Amino acid sequence: MDDGPGADVRVLHVDDEPSLTDLVSIYLEREAGDVDLSVSTSNSGAEALERLRQERVDCVVSDYDMPDIDGLEFLRAVRSEHSDLPFILFTGKGSEEVARDAFRVGATDYMQKDTGTDQYTVLANRVVNAVSQYRAKAASERYGTAIEVLDSGVYSLDSAGRFTSADGVFCELTGYDREAIIGREFADLAAESDDEILSAFERVVSPDAPDTERFETVLSPGSAYPHDDDLLCEGHLALRPTEDDEPAVIGTLQDVTERRRRRNRLRYETRLKDAVLDTSTSLMSAETDEIGTKIEWTLQSVGEVADLDRCSVYLYDDETNVAARMHDWRGGDRCEHPERVALEDARWLLERLHRFENVRLHRVSDLPPEASDTKRVLTDVETGGFVAVPMVSKWALVGFVIFDVVETSRSWTDTEVDLLRSVGNNITHTLARQRRERELQRQNDRLEEFASVVSHDLRNPLNVAKGFVELAREEADVTYLDRALDGVTRMDTLLNDVLTLARQGRTVGETRSIAIEDVAERAWKAVDTGDDAVLIVEDGLGSTQADQGRLQQAFENLFRNAVEHGGPCRDFGDASADGASGRAVDASDAPGASDAGPTADSSGTETAAHESSATSAADELIVRVGPTETGFYVADDGPGIPADERDTVFEHGHTTSASGTGFGLSIVESIVEAHGWDIEVTAPESDLGGARFEFDTGGVRSEVEPRFSLSDD
């Protein structure tokens, strides 16, 4: 403590449980270390208020739930008489709402009662620290008052309010030369209205003049004034006697501009703290489907209180080293932050965020030379001053929040940056909770799907198998067992598909850059396509970041779906026409096909043995994989999908085939969403006329879970 070892600290403990106050008193006095701490007790708020009026108390420790007045009412009463007295709310009725209200009313600290005696050591330390800070502040204020007196400029005025003298402090404070103001009226120095100075002067020279007269005004400083803004001054005037009995006035002047700045800053930080508390409460109580709206409301609330122009939340993908803007708020018609920020485009900024540092700049021009990439990105969107705070989960950067002003500079205090960091932390925890709740919902959905299949879809093939087995037993005809085996096979297929959904769901393993063409060909060879199917792979498919096994599974399900739903409806001629250039992979490449295998042309390209006939025969199924602007497609020349059914084909159990399970396309959709992609059924290819599935691998969509993990751990 500032007062040294053995300092006298008096604590008033208020609680309606006498046995507890006695226990706390003993432990506080024992655990205060070198501090001479004494505790007096009171069992009601009303009695405690009277004690405060009669005794010297250095700190109040109060319960919340008391019979006459609760802890918050008691705190309000204390603050009405003792604005700065340390007050610690020590209660067993702990909640975030009580803590928030306590700090708003003016509590110094908040502590929830716990079991065990260790809590009293913590409480004693908090009491000692609170009193220490209180006494240090009081000493600082006394010292500051003395300094203010020393820093006051002194001047004198004649009966007309003109300067007759001014000391060096006055001239330095206002920026005027002494010769320039002697003989000038003091009111002429006013920046706006001179009423304050004139009124104070008239009152002090009136017959019933007070001893001193105080005024506050804004002066227009002189040429030597070192600052850019106007000068807010507080002055005092007093009448002084003269030899000729003419009224004369002596005055003092203090620069209170900085005091006003501190006062305004304190008020602003209090408003910002309240906004952060309110938005954190809102985020914590948000339902899963409300979180996006609540995050953007949080950005707006904080942005308006902090007088910002823009706030944006970016989620970072460490596989691609790209951050995508997921939520934002803009004041007025400001331009948007970039949709994506790549590491190579803003390396200076992202490297600091990777170290979990808060990044703040008064102006973008303050960036060092090695940050030219970051400066270019920020300049392109007219950023002036900014703060960027990291979003951290499991000791990894999962995103960041940027707060900025457009084109102008901005100073940021430590308190302000800490509060903005709290906003980033609250958003991180909220997104983590949303992800966990969505995953839990998906697990529940998969359980319901499994239960639905077991109770309904499996019952039919089970009844078929059971019925034919009974017929075989009754009639001693083993041919019925073949029919029973069909039912068993059907159940096996259904179980495999449902277990695939239940075990894998919408998650992927390790992803890497893979060639789409290679995966498609491996999937084709893994599917039993029969002898009347051919795969055409177009050039230009390129590569993508994916889990190879899961992507191959998606291709296999689409190929199997095409085979199950039959061949072409009409003869479309050569499948390589109309720009469908590529390499055909025949069904003979599949496992168990003819030993003749594929042949190679003169350039070494592997070609199906009967490619020309495969691409022209009307009774063959043609499946084609080709590139699009944002990904790739899989198309066939089968019967196709009616336009009114294209939105429902991915639903669980949807099938038009007697042998289908209705889960194949659902598995494809889960794999696509796990990668953060999109898939849809589009209009058929003009030269095929069958089904066409288009994959959009262009990036992370806002309505789909990002590939990276968010967690509170």
Automatic annotation (TrEMBL):
Q: Which residues form the PAS domain?
A: 139-208
Q: Where is this region: Disordered?
A: 570-618
Keywords tagged on the record: Kinase, Phosphoprotein, Transferase, Two-component regulatory system
Catalysed reactions listed for this entry: ATP + protein L-histidine = ADP + protein N-phospho-L-histidine
**Residue ranges annotated for the Response regulatory domain, each copy included:** 10-128
Q: Where is the Histidine kinase domain?
A: 453-701
**Residues modified to 4-aspartylphosphate:** 63
Single GO biological process annotation from the record:
phosphorelay signal transduction system
Q: Which EC number applies?
A: 2.7.13.3
List the SMART domains: GAF, HATPase_c, HisKA, PAS, REC
Q: Does the record's keyword annotation contain Transferase?
A: yes
- An example Gene Ontology molecular-function term: protein histidine kinase activity
SUPFAM superfamilies (UniProt xref): ATPase domain of HSP90 chaperone/DNA topoisomerase II/histidine kinase (SSF55874), CheY-like (SSF52172), GAF domain-like (SSF55781), Homodimeric domain of signal transducing histidine kinase (SSF47384), PYP-like sensor domain (PAS domain) (SSF55785)
According to the UniProt entry, where is the signal peptide? none
Residue ranges with Low complexity bias: 574-618
- Specify the protein name: histidine kinase
